[in-house]
Amino acid sequence: MIAAIQDLHDFVGQTVTLQGWLYNKRDSSKVAFLVVRDGTGLCQCVVSKTPETEGLFQDARRLSQETSLRVTGVVRADERQTGGYELAVSGLEVVGPAEDYPITPKAHGIEFLMKHRHLHFRSQRQWAILRVRHTLIDAIRGFFNGHGYTLIDTPIFAPAAGEGAQTLFEVDYFGDPVYLAQTGQLYLESACMAFGKVYCFGPTFRAEKSKTRRHLTEFWMVEPEVAFADLEAIVDIAEDFICSIVGRVLRDHGDDLEFLGREAASLEAMVKPFYRITYSEAAELLHSNKARDLLESDLETKQARITELGEAITAKEAEGSGKGVKQWKRDKLAAEVIGHREELEEVETEVRNIPRHIELAAGFEWGRDLGGSDETIISRLHDRPVFVTHYPHDVKSFYMKKNVDDGRLCNNFDMLAPEGYGEIIGGSQREDDPVALLKRIEHEKLDPNDYAWYLDLRRYGTVPHSGFGLGVERTLAWLCGLKHIRETIPFPRMLGKFYP
Ligand code: 4AD
Ligand code: MG
Questions:
Q1: Residue 389 is part of a domain; what is its CATH number?
Q2: What is the pTM of this model?
């Protein structure tokens, strides 16, 4: 009987066959422990050496990491083991050998791992992250499907900019230039006039020359669009939406989050109401002592951390090169040193940047867009997500609705995730007045001919309408507590990175 590791609870005392890969192995002269993974979990398989199992035992000892195999044995409950069950092995069949698997249990630098991404996500950590991603995507679809939205797939080849001309990837479309979609929004606006509430969900492309922990050139975005909704209504929807997806991930992935070292408590605190502040209030916050104090105390903490890491590296290197140190211990120390060095590099960069971030915040001029470091400060000064509304129109997209009370502003919002994660949603009410929209298109030096169809929507039964876009990868980084966005997508595409 073939069984999946996640179903072993149904088979205690019975003989089953697991099909999977050898994740790890330990052995002594009397017993071999094979940790097998099958995509649903990990299970320790025990091969004891007896006169009858001599051959089996020798075979087990020879197995190398990532060999694919079928293991047969009796299921035993054992709470101490990963997954809570183990297998007393009576049979072993190699399906495919694996020689010199490049990712060993020793540590590797992140560059190396990203180059081996095709193998990297066999590791437990990547497995956990991508499983949460799967559920996040399901929860996103579930929310919209369950609230009366119709899915509308929008095109990837777009004849014009949807978000601003600076970040377009141009493609030769049989001699004509077209662009990879930066957003499905404009098409979705046309669909919302037919279906009322719609959403699109697909890959999105930005030729951003930004090498940051938040930027991908290809990412997945879900975008709802709602007819007859104003700014306040769409902010309410975004709030419910976030609560719903966070709740689902917490419910289904407690174990994975724990494995990733993510404290459930910080996500459990994501309850309504979130904070709502205006852009002008955000600017004041950046000028405040609170912002300065936060960064100055960061500087102290991080400088202390640099000293600590330096000392740890020296100590571990000395210990590892000592005489008589066992190989496994050497490997363990070397792995820790690699981890420390990576962290050191990150912390040193942060320390170099903090003075500039202090300056940027203190000198923030009304009228500028919030930068990454500004968002980090605002988001860290709040314990729940923050909606920042009413930005100056000149730093935002052409399609945003001009504010009636203050013509300098638009009815838009960004939602900043807490703990410094920054913007994960951007949205707005849309300009529904054809004259105002045309003015804006011309002001941005976009070609009105490219947007003739889009202007039509304002000519034939225009209504107030609003929508937003949520980036899956930034959201996942926040939910899993990851520092960098690169682990949140199976095959990340970033500035200078497109292999494998
Ligand atoms: O704020 P953005 O650019 O908004 C739009 O594209 C709107 N058309 C959405 C709409 O109103 N329908 O992007 C929305 C979200 C961001 O908040 C962020 O989560 C994600 O998309 N995002 C990125 N994620 C990873 N890498 C990048 N380079 C991203 N750019 C945006
Ligand atoms: Mg944005």
A1: 3.30.930.10
A2: 0.95
